[in-house]
Amino acid sequence: MITTQNKPTKEKIIEAAYYLVRSKGITKMTMEAVADKAGISKGAVFYHFSTKELLIEAMVKQLFNNFDSQLNQEYENEGKLGGRTQSYLKTTFLMHDQEENELSVALLAALVNNPDLLKPAKEYYEIWQNQLENDQINPVIATIVRLTTDGLWFSELFGLAPIDKTLRDQLYETLSELINSAKK
Amino acid sequence: MITTQNKPTKEKIIEAAYYLVRSKGITKMTMEAVADKAGISKGAVFYHFSTKELLIEAMVKQLFNNFDSQLNQEYENEGKLGGRTQSYLKTTFLMHDQEENELSVALLAALVNNPDLLKPAKEYYEIWQNQLENDQINPVIATIVRLTTDGLWFSELFGLAPIDKTLRDQLYETLSELINSAKK
DNA sequence: ATTATTGTACCGCCTGGTCAGTATAGTTGT
DNA sequence: ACAACTATACTGACCAGGCGGTACAATAAT
Question: B56, A146 in Cβ contact below 8 A?
Fold first, then answer.
């Protein structure tokens, strides 16, 4: 009851925060700027997130929850040997096609403000890595798949020789084949 | 007077800056803290780097120059088909074994303060990616190698399920084999 | 009326950057 | 030889602006 009432404003705040980090850079994500972008006052922002760290924590958690559930959803349609690896590959590539990479944006915001905020992210990653290493295929191949997609993020996050669409499509296919050929 | 290792002040400043970012986080890399760590006054720091951006620029440039020359040095002993890819793989893995990953640390410091400071990094990356795509082997494989090692950085930078030594060694071998099997 | 939410005004701290001046070593003029 | 001057390296005190956070009044919701 209370939670449903809180939702809209809280989400507006989080969205505003994303927008700022993505378009203006992390340093411009001030609580006042967030308030302006969300169309409310600074006091209201602090009412919902009594500290900046709590806001960032919410950003990180939200995104990782989304990603994880999308991962699991994909997995159910997949199953079988190398299924989790296939899901990971598919989900990350899907994510990339849609808009900006909000995950790394949130990670960055967290890292800059307080590395402890990365904790939920770390926990998820441990789970994923574990799943990949026990996916009934060669764990080294599974790890290559994970790291390649992470590297894709990295390159886009920093804008360091980002991979264009055609090469990315080829990447997807080659990695997918790699998974299939690694089935025992 | 025996040659007392009296490093130039500029280097001491840069080293102090690295230390701070690496151990305390980016936010703690203030010009005052750098001065303290370097054992000089704040004014002295600004004497050598009239702005914080210039200091960070120096950090980024130095590291990328080092990396690039190490890359080329490795390449000379290598040559052949897929030589550049092999060099890239080797150099990054060597880098990882020694100390912390200062490259990404510098990148982060740059990104946080002013994305323009990434320019030299971008230029190098464009060159590298270009070399990899024209290495007389399947460019997709070459790119996978690059992105996997970048992903390795990423995971260490954020501490997200970093890869342990044994798996990393296996990664190296598998990637190396992948390069060889991609020779035409 | 009571509670939940939001606006306004403000505070204290930190940070990048400035500035006037100092110390020292080398150079020049006489 | 000696004073005057210059260049380089550095100090320490200071400032203006921005930021997270607070206090409290005002309004909206139940």
Answer: no
**pLDDT tens, B114-161?**
778 888 899 999 999 999 999 999 999 999 999 999 999 888 888 899
Report the alpha-carbon distance of residue B34 to residue B39 in Å, rounded. Answer: 8
The Cα–Cα gap between A104 and B160 comes to 12
Residue B1 pLDDT > 70 = no
Which residue in chain B has the smallest CA separation from A174? B140
Comparing CA positions, the residue from A35, A159, A59, A160 lying closest to residue A111 is A59
- Kindly report, residue by residue over B26-84, the tens digit of the pLDDT: 888 999 999 999 999 999 999 999 999 999 999 988 888 888 998 998 887 666 888 99
CB B163 within 8 A of CB A135: no
pLDDT of A1 reads: 36
Instruction: Tell me which residue of B25, B53, B31 sits closest to B44, measured CA to CA.
Output: B31
All protein residues with a CB under 7 A from any atom of strand C: A 2, 5-6, 9, 35, 40-44, 47-48; B 27-32, 42-43, 46, 50-53
- Which of the four pLDDT bands, split at 50, 70 and 90, describes residue B5? very low
Q: Quote the Cα angle for B126-B128-B130, to 5°.
A: 70
Whole-angstrom Cα distance, residue B153 to residue B105? 10
d(CA B141, CA B85): 9
Rounded-to-10 torsion of CA A148, A150, A153, A154: -90
Task: Choose which CATH entry (3.30.70, 1.20.120, 1.10.10, 1.20.1070) describes domain A1-50.
Answer: 1.10.10
Which among A100, A70, A157 is positioned nearest to B112, based on CA atoms? A157
Q: Where are the domains of chain A?
A: 1-50, 57-181
Residues of A in contact with B140 (CB under 8 A): 167, 170-171, 174
CATH of domain B7-50: 1.10.10.60
Phi/psi at A135 (5° precision): -115, 20
Exposed/middle/buried for A100, CB within 10 Å: 0-12, 13-18, 19+?
middle
